[in-house]
Amino acid sequence: MKLEAGGAIKPAVYQEISKLGKIEDKTTGKNQGHHSPKNPYRAIVVGVGLKTDNFLEIKESLAELEDLCSAWGGEVVGNVVQILTQYQSATLIGSGKVQEIREMVEESAASVVIVDHNITGVQARNLQKDIGVPILDRNQVIVDIFAQRAKTHEGKLQVELAQMLDQLPRMVGAWMGSLSRQGGGIGTRGPGETALENDRRRIRERVKAIRKQLEGVRKHRSQQRAFRKKNKIPTFALIGYTNTGKSTLLNQLTNSQVEVKNQVFATLDPTTRKVFLPEVGDALVTDTVGFIRKLPAHLIEAFKATLEESGEAEVLLHVIDLASPQMDQQIKVVDELIAEFGWEKKPIIYVFNKIDKAPVERQFQVKAFPRVFVSAAKGEAIDKLRKQMTVAAQALNESVELFFSKEEEHKIYELSRESRIEKTEAASTGTICYASLTPAQLSRWSSFLVQNKKY
Ligand SMILES: Nc1nc2c(ncn2[C@@H]2O[C@H](COP(=O)(O)OP(=O)(O)OP(=O)(O)O)[C@@H](O)[C@H]2O)c(=O)[nH]1
Ligand SMILES: [Mg+2]
User: Fold this and answer.
1) Less Cβ around it within 10 Å: N or C end of the chain?
2) Helix or strand or coil: residue 296?
3) pLDDT at 14
4) Closest residue by Cα to residue 138 from 76, 45, 75, 51
């Protein structure tokens, strides 16, 4: 493998092809070259699971892999599922299934096989040898989609890091595999091994350099957030399964024009915009990358800076596709990730989107609370969402006592216009007001605060 200076992002399939030699298009006999929507890779997708797993989930995950494959630029020409008692260490799936896939590949002139499960370097090489076309796993396809979509410098760095973290363990596998074929054992040193060690060293060095650059990005972001905190603007983050309508909702709430696509992982980089909330004033909403089941761990690590942007928000807007047949599973995946990131203590508003597309009964079947039903695309019930956001922002308010001397008492009227005054008490030298203030108001009225105590 050759690493280019500046870390060019190469799709995983190129790396597999470079090991195999070029792919011949069996239908035309011509070399296929780059994949593009007009000239997609013909893919066979393989679902795998154990007898103890939920069969429906295996099928759903495979259907999703087909969507991922299209988003990646491939065309699914066949699918197959194998349920096993246990995974095979050499090939993951059983030898009979390997044979079946090989025949499917030949019949359908497929040029790549994608397995809906992590595969090791050794397994990929063994399968590739038996089947005759490159073998990718779900993670590689997801990371490849990210690679195709990354636009900003930061996004590209994150993807490159994810790719390298994905490659390192595969390379260990490849090395062990090559040793066993040479009939050698640990301690046998061949020329291939030295080259591989060099590659691994170069990758490790690059990983270190990218991590350092991304650390800089994180620092810069956290300074920006500290500035916002000082200005006390309530912050919201749109999170949720990919393709549920987060970016469409951001556009509706903030009159923006961020890119919206009927595709998984349309958004990679976070965007923060201002939204006006009645009785609260300005607030900030961040839109970010969507989630998916079995999100690769190295992608999560690489996108730490991006995810922190949402993690710092005071309130989460969990956007859900009410029209998706996989809605419950998608909610579960997002809830699990919320827990994994340690965000479960944050207030969450469940935003059930796409009501224009979902049968109305579905609205009675959902349990999550507090919730709101909207259509981001049609701009329906966005006011209701704003109201919920206002309630959530006000819940961030603090109940405080303010003291106004006789000369300043005219300011109480001003305060009453922008906040809720619970009660007032006359004192000998002025008036004490008990009020509930937003973080922004708190900083504006700070010179009148008696104490920031709850009552
Ligand atoms: N019918 C319908 N479609 C919607 C609605 N909201 C969004 N969509 C469509 O759903 C698709 C995905 O919308 P996005 O806003 O890009 O979704 P996202 O959650 O930002 O997706 P990623 O960034 O890929 O994670 C697009 O085709 C939108 O037009 C809605 O209320 N009703
Ligand atoms: Mg988006």
Assistant:
1) C
2) coil
3) 61
4) 45
Instruction: Name the maximum alpha-carbon separation found in the chain.
Output: 97
Q: Which residue is listed with tokens 């060095």?
A: 205
Give the atom of ligand 1 at the shortest distance from the alpha carbon of 290.
Answer: 25
- E strand map for 370-448: 371-373, 398-405, 420-427, 430-437
Q: Does domain 232-394 have CATH number 3.40.50.300?
A: yes
How does residue 15 score in pLDDT terms, banded at 50, 70 and 90? low
Tokens for 64?
A: 């999703």
Inter-axis angle of helices 12-20 and 138-149, to 10 degrees?
120
CA of 145 to the centre of ligand 2 (A): 14
Residue-level pLDDT at 283: 92
Q: CB under 8 Å, gap of 24 or more: what pairs does 270-274 form? A: 270/306, 270/309, 270/310, 272/309
- If one counts every other C-beta atom within 10 angstroms of the C-beta of residue 68, the result is 24
Separation in Å, CA 199 to CA 7, 18, 244, 260: 13, 15, 40, 39
CB 378 within 8 A of CB 356: yes
CA 389-392-397 angle, to 5 degrees, is 125
- The residue nearest atom 32 of ligand 1, judged by CA position, is 354
Handedness of CA 156, 151, 296, 87 (dihedral sign): negative
- β-pair type (112-115, 41-50): parallel
**Which pair of structure tokens corresponds to residue 355?**
């009501």
| Cβ-contact 393, 411 below 8 angstroms | no
Q: Give alpha helix (H) positions in 73-131.
A: 95-108, 121-131
Average pLDDT, the chain: 85
Tens of pLDDT along 163-191?
998 888 777 544 444 444 444 444 445 55
pLDDT for the residue numbered 22: 41
For domain 12-149, which architecture applies? 3-Layer(aba) Sandwich (3.40)
| pLDDT tens sequence across 335-345 | 999 999 999 99
326 within 8 A of 275, measured Cβ to Cβ: no
Task: Tell me the whole-structure pTM to 2 decimals.
Answer: 0.81
